Amino acid sequence: MLISCTGINKFYQDNHVLRSVSLTVENQDRIGLVGDNGCGKSTFLRVLTEQELPDAFEHDEPAIAKAPHLRIGYLAQNAGLDGAKTVREEMTDAFAPLLAAKETMRELEQKMEHTPLTDDEADEYSRLSAFFETNDGYTTDVRIRTVLYGMGFSEQELDRTISGFSGGEKTRLALCKLLLESPDLLILDEPTNHLDFQTVGWLEDYLKSWRGALLIVSHDRFFLDRLCTSICELERGQMTRYKGNYTAFTKLRAESRERQQKEYEAQQREIAKLEDYVARNKVRASTAKSAKSREKQLEKIERIDRPYSAAKTARLQFTYAVTPPIDLLEVRNIDLTVGKGTQQKTLMENISFTVRRGEKLGIIGENGAGKSTLLKVLRNILPHKGLVRWAAGTRLGCFEQESESLNPYATVFDELHDRYPMLSDFEVRSLLGQVRLTGENVFKETGVISGGERAKLCFAILMMEHGNVLLLDEPTNHLDLSTKEILEQALSEFDGTILFVSHDRYLLERIADNLLVLGDGKAERFKGRFSAYQEQIRRKTEAEQTAAAEEKQKKAAEAQKAGFRSKEQRAQEAKRRAEQKRIEQEIDSLQAEQDALQASLTDPEIAGNYEKMQALCARLEEIRQRQDDLLEEMILLEE
């Protein structure tokens, strides 16, 4: 057991957010924490990490027990680093114990150069060496680069100061540091925010081999499916744990709710039957005793709460009256540009594709690739070159990522009523109730309601547009999991045409039957599901890595072959080197003799003796000639 909590209660004003919540986390657990927006997930994490204290409630005695020396890493929503440190310095801080051990070892090594270590110092050095090697102290630089590169940072950014990064980038850096610190329990609150497909994939692969436990809050169901082995759902303040990944959880939860609903309905029938008997027989003397007995029986019944599935949920349905032609859309040689005047930038040129009736086309690509711009071009909101031609009878229904068309000063009720004045007040309230905008929320200005509430208002508008073509820009942003599921069901049942931009891999997999991939200045069509596209990318990446490895092996083999010499060649090389050495020695010997003879030329005895002088000069000439010959031999040997 790493950590265990029992009887956790938390109040905010009159709202009982957490109701006697309990959870035990074992080593190697992979837990996903899910629930509707505002259900208390982040609150629970803050209590678990002791950033907030639980509240006492009735007979519940809150308790949090931890394993000795437990190290917890917690990445909160919008967490980021700030300060004057560079990325390299901040990441290096993750290895502070290793660096401290290395520094102490260096000091002891310096001391060893001058004096022997004491027994205590020798033991300390041995302990530190074992700690340093066991924790891979020699690979810290490699680990830093592996994590940073995997999370989308480059070599050039290692020496940038933290304060120069955006909020999203700081959150990614905070996650990088947590991964490098390798805590026993890693708690992540929406870790996939600000990450593209490639980076999320890398993070999933990295966390699959995580040695500790994981507790993850995420709206990314694909992420939860790949990593989690159990799902904990917070619902009306209570936590229920299900075994399996997110897909298994949805099935088990549905079965559980169906069972609870049947039990609830059976009990309600029994209660109604007893209450009816009591009401009819309590006042009659002959049956009063029997009625009193049934009344006591009623009091003893432990009432089953109405299952959550019986509560009202959003109801989305997209319909249309006019069926357009089969050849629905033709796009030919259009350009995608952003900005105006000198600030104008071309994202893509000469994009061409077609869409047929009934297709559900997912548009994907990195941030800034031009996905939202493309949708605006298709709606003729932005000027463009080239052809965009919709077939006659096409009616567009549009959902915008940032709800740009909403009047921020209009109330939710007025926003809908002003668009469709033919609707009565009752019909407007009914439509808003369909998307779960009720009570006082309908009289709030659209500029102050939450992102999820604005999205629901836009879905109400979208239902009223009755478009046979839906253009959707990030439709699941700001939505909780239950609303995402309702939206997906509505889109899967819609038999018209859908063109949508999304980073939601679960939505892409379920809805899109083919993809338009924007990137590297071009748009490419992929026929197939998102999972098939990912598999193609994976195979392509593996093929590139294999090709790179084979090229490296080939070059190594060629280098080895170039450096390989036979036994005979090695013998000849040894003979050549020996001959070179002999020549060098002879040249040195001749030079010494030449120096001695030249010094003798000044001797009076030799200078006055003609025969001796002639013999000496003849020997000097022989030496010079021999030196020339030896130098020529040396040149030939070197060649």
How is this structure best described in words?
With about 650 residues, the protein is an alpha/beta fold. The protein folds into 5 domains: about 1-70 and about 185-245, Rossmann fold (3-Layer(aba) Sandwich); about 260-310, no CATH class; about 325-520, 3-Layer(aba) Sandwich (Rossmann fold); about 530-565; about 565-639, Helix Hairpins, CATH 1.10.287. It is about 45% helix and about 20% strand. It has 20 helices and 18 strands. It has helices spanning about 40-50, 85-90, 95-110, 120-135, 140-150, 165-180, 195-210, 220-225, 245-280, 290-300, 370-380, 410-420, 425-435, 450-465, 480-495, 505-510, 530-565, 565-600, 605, 610-639; strands at about 5-10, 15-25, 30-35, 65, 70-75, 185-190, 215, 230-235, 240-245, 325-340, 345-355, 360-365, 385-390, 395-400, 470-475, 495-500, 515-520, 520-525. The strands form 4 sheets. A 6-stranded mixed sheet has the order 5-6-7-3-8-9, with helices on both faces. A hairpin with a 2-residue loop joins strand 17 (about 515-520) and strand 18 (about 520-525). The model has no long low-confidence stretch (mean pLDDT about 85).
